[in-house]
Amino acid sequence: MPRFLACLSLFFFLVPVTYVRGPVPPANESQYISLEPITLDAKDPGRTRVGRLVFLGGWKITSDNGEFGGISSMVVLSDNRFLMLSDNGALVGFTLDEGRHKAIRPFIAPLPDGPAKPNEYARQNWDSESLLHNSETGQFWVGYEHQHSIWRYGSSFSRKESANFPKAMQKWPENGGAEAMLRLADGRFLVFSEAAEYSKGGYQAFIFDSDASVPTSKPVAFGYKPPKGYKLTDAALLDDGSALMLHRRFTPIDGVSAILSVAQLQDFQPGKVATAIPIATLKSPLKVDNMEALAITRDSEGSIVWIASDDNFSALQESLLFKFRLLKGKNLQKKPDAGHPNEKAEASPGFSTFESD
What we know:
The chain has helices at 2-14, 17-21, and strands spanning 34-37, 49-50, 53-62, 71-76, 81-86, 90-97, 102-110, 127-133, 140-145, 149-153, 160-164, 178-183, 189-197, 203-208, 219-224, 231-237, 242-251, 255-264, 273-274, 277-283, 291-299, 302-309, 319-326. By secondary structure, the chain is mainly β.
C-alpha cells in the first residue's frame, strides 16, 4: 500500500496541473486562509534538530479559494508579513501570528500582468516560479517558465515596469525555467534553470550584469550542480557571501525529500560549475512535501529559514510552511539532539495590502 500511494503521488508530480485538477470547479474567491500547527516529526513531537536547522514552528496552510495552492516562491517582509507566489500566477499574502496560529489580513489575488498567450487558441499560462524583492524600492521580480522571462513590478505589485525574454533562456525545457533567482548587492542577477543541462555538468544558470528584467542586461552562462538525484527549487542570500539552495526529489520508493545546501557566491563564475554543501535533509519520518519556496529573515540571534511546499493543486499533497533557526558552523550538525543523532546531510540518487498589520 505505501508503494502504491507513492506511485499515485508520482502521477501528480509528473502530469500537468490542468489534467490533475479535472473539471473546473465553481469559482470560489474566499480570502480566508487557515493555519494549522504541525510538528516536524509526528512520531516524535519533541524532535527539533535536523542537520544545521532547529525547528521553531510549522503550519499547514489551507483556503477554499480556487486559486490557492502551488506555492513556488515567497518573500517575508517586516513583522512576519508573507507574500507567496503560486505557479498559477496568484499572490497569497498574510501576516503570520505565530502565537495564535492565525493568518492576519489575508488576501489571494492574481499578478497584475504576465506573459501573453503564445497564440489566440492557447490558454493563459503564468507559470511563475521565482520571486525577488527590493526592500529599499519596494520593487518585485518574477521569473516565469514556459514563456521564459523575467518581469519587474512596482511597489506592492502596482504595475508591470519591465519584462525581458532573454534569447539564451528560450532554449530551456518548457518546464525547466527560472526556478530560482538571486539579486546580488552589486546589482547583478543570478537566474537558475531547473532542468536545462549545462555542457560542463549540472544545470544551466546565467549571471546577468544588471537588472535581468531589462532587455539590455547581458547574461553569461555557468553551471550549478545540485546534490545527486535532486533538482534546485529556490535560493536565498545569507549575510556572509553565501546562499542557501533548496532542492527536492521524488522517487516511487522513497517518496518526497528535500535538501538544503550552502553555496559560496564566489563559486558562481562564468563557464564554471558550482556546487553546494548539504546542511540538512528533510525526509520521512519528518513532515515533508514538495518543498519549493525559500526565504530568510534575521533576528537578534541570527538567521531564520522559512521553507514552504507546492501542493501541485493535488488533494494528495499539502501546502506547508516551516520555520527554522539556522545554526552556525559545519561542526554543529554533528552534535546529537536530545537522544536523536542528527541525520547526515547527504543526497542519494533519485529522480499596500503588503504592509504589515
